[in-house]
């Protein structure tokens, strides 16, 4: 009981110390630092009016990537400048009141649709609205101070995000891809086991569970793809951009896994249809096909035993299987099923090559993988 309680208490702490959570906590600290620094610069150094805008803008400028901080910060400055000009023009020409306020908001919202301002575009309208309702839309000095406050906040936010451990979550996408690879490998090995040991009474429940599992793996791979996009963006303008795994290699692995999941689903559906039609397995075909499937699964799952197979091995085995089956007295009704399964495993082998590397016939040993994990965490 005590051990179970300890595990429950330790688990949240373990999740909190995961690299992706450490990065989130670091960004929180940086946002606080940028907020305080912008306030001090605006009040103690420059003595600006409306100084609250500087920390407010700095807080909103510390984003998950340096590129996003620069891009969104530039949009904030441009939108604030346009809002100030819009409020000044409305106040000087039409004065204050409902009509100029409505026209300024209308124009501001239309300007916000511009391609370069879409993310922060509503700031044009809100800035004009605030200045006109506060009665300061025609005071040039106050308007300049407001613009300067925004500029200070953006610059401080960008500087803090760039200089204080620039965000680069290099390992999250890689770890997600490894989990998908290992999950797919385990599925392939389970399929091989089920077909080998349950060929006589293999039901549709098993094959449909395989198909459902490929859908779950697809969802996990979609999340990994989003992480890859963020990882690639995080390298732009980032002094630490050379750290971590090569994003091009990770993208190649993602595409390989995507194709591997597709071919696994195709094989599962063929088995599902053959089960529905009560096809009996040819013993020779079943033994050799499941051995290929298990070998590919072992390679994806980074299993330690010597069952790994490469794409070239599979291609040779498929050709030999076709030749053997052609010479045997195989019923015609089996050919569509076996042909589809052979095509699926051949394409699956090529996808596995892309996912884990053509020469990666053996996984690194446990010590090497632990060292790689430690280096990845240290790089972050």
From TrEMBL:
Keyword Transmembrane helix: yes
Record keywords: Cell membrane, Membrane, Transmembrane, Transmembrane helix
Main location: membrane
Amino acid composition bias (Polar residues), ranges on this chain: 368-380
Subcellular localization: Cell membrane
Pfam family name, one: ArAE_1
Keyword Translocase among UniProt keywords: no
InterPro entries: ArAE_1
Transmembrane segments: 82-111
Annotated spans, Disordered: 355-380
Membrane topology: Multi-pass membrane protein
Cellular component terms per the entry's GO annotation: plasma membrane
Protein name, UniProt field: Aromatic acid exporter family protein
Organism, as annotated: Nocardioides bruguierae
Lineage: Bacteria, Bacillati, Actinomycetota, Actinomycetes, Propionibacteriales
């Amino acid at each position: 009981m005590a051990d179970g309680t300890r595990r429950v208490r330790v688990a949240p702490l373990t999740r909190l110390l995961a690299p992706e959570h450490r990065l989130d906590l670091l960004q929180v600290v940086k946002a606080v630092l940028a907020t305080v620094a912008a306030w001090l610069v605006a009040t103690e150094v420059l003595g600006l009016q409306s100084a609250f805008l500087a920390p407010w803008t700095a807080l909103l400028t510390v984003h998950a990537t340096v590129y996003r901080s620069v891009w969104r910060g530039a949009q904030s400055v441009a939108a604030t400048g346009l809002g100030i000009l819009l409020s000044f023009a409305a106040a000087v020409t039409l004065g204050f009141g409902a009509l100029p306020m409505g026209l300024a908001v209308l124009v501001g919202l239309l300007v916000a649709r511009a391609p370069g301002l879409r993310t922060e575009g509503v700031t044009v309208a809100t800035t004009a609205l605030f200045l006109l309702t506060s009665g300061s839309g025609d005071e040039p000095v106050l308007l300049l101070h407001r613009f300067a406050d925004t500029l200070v906040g953006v610059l401080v936010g960008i500087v803090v995000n760039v200089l204080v451990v620039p965000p680069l979550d290099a390992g999250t996408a890689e770890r997600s891809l490894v989990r998908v690879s290992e999950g797919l490998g385990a599925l392939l090995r389970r399929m091989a086991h089920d077909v080998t040991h349950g060929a006589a009474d293999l039901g549709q429940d098993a094959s449909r569970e395989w198909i459902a599992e490929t859908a779950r793996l697809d969802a996990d791979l979609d999340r990994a793809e989003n992480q890859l996009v963020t990882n690639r963006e995080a390298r732009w303008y980032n002094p630490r951009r050379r750290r971590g795994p090569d994003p091009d290699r990770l993208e190649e692995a993602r595409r390989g896994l995507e194709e591997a999941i597709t071919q696994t689903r195709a094989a599962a559906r063929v088995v599902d249809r053959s089960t529905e039609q009560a096809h009996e397995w040819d013993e020779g075909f079943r033994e050799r096909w499941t051995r290929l499937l298990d070998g590919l699964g072992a390679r994806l799952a980074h299993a330690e035993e010597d069952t790994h197979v490469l794409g070239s091995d599979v291609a040779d085995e498929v050709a030999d299987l076709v030749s053997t089956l052609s010479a045997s007295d195989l019923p015609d009704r089996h050919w569509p099923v076996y042909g589809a399964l052979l095509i699926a495993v051949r394409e699956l082998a090529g996808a596995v090559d892309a996912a884990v590397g053509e020469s990666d016939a053996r996984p690194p040993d446990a010590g090497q993988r632990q060292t790689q994990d430690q280096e990845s965490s240290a790089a972050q």
